[in-house]
Amino acid sequence: MKKLISFAFAALLAVGAFAQTVAVLGFESDNFCIEERTGTMSDLLTDELVGLPHITVVERKHIDKVTGEMKFQAKPYTDPATAKSLGKMVGADCVIVGSADVFAGTLTVTARTIEVETAKILYSTKMTCDTWSEFNRKLPDFARNLVSVIPVPERFTGTWTGTVQTDSYTDEYEITFEKKGKCTVRVTPDGNFGSPLTAKGTWSDSDDILHINARFKTDIARLKTMNWAAVYALGDDGESFSMNIRGEGDKLVRVVFAKTE
Asked: pTM of the full predicted structure?
């Protein structure tokens, strides 16, 4: 999702799109030669972040509104505790704070990414430039580095149920996605005969492809090995997803899973 949003909708959209909400709290400088440019610098950084995947950006005017209403001082942002407090007020998961100065004719820009929930500094970086053209040239990589350490929220953690239905059978699946790539799969075979099959397995989610692997102790050939790898489509509310898997005769079967807990 690539969108600049107001903080009033930030939390809602972040949940729906599984993006992390980031607020650029601005750059500070004690150097009068560049002090007036710090606002432009933070705006340019914000623009770069808008185009990055899994990132939702809080609009600058809403940050200014909150700081104005709460009567924050002019330069509170380098303090992680204060950055945490302000980040919560604007609905951000992470905030970026920075400073700029000129040493021997070279512009030095430092920035830190702070996790709002813990006030932990996730990343700190520095960029040096001799010209503003060089600043603009280096800015895209600078922006990507600042958010590369932000963890993407888990899309699937929890329990989901779905049905694999073909012309010959209907199997009911219950998959519990756990952290660190582990999962538990329960399958009630067609006809509901016998006890449900249960197996521990692994899963991963990369480039919108969901991988699920598990092995069952069973004589049912189609269920002995579960080796799914397919592009998935997540529901708008984040409470369902669908994917096409290989069924009997290697035909594609569409499966829809709903989150139950």
From this structure: 0.57
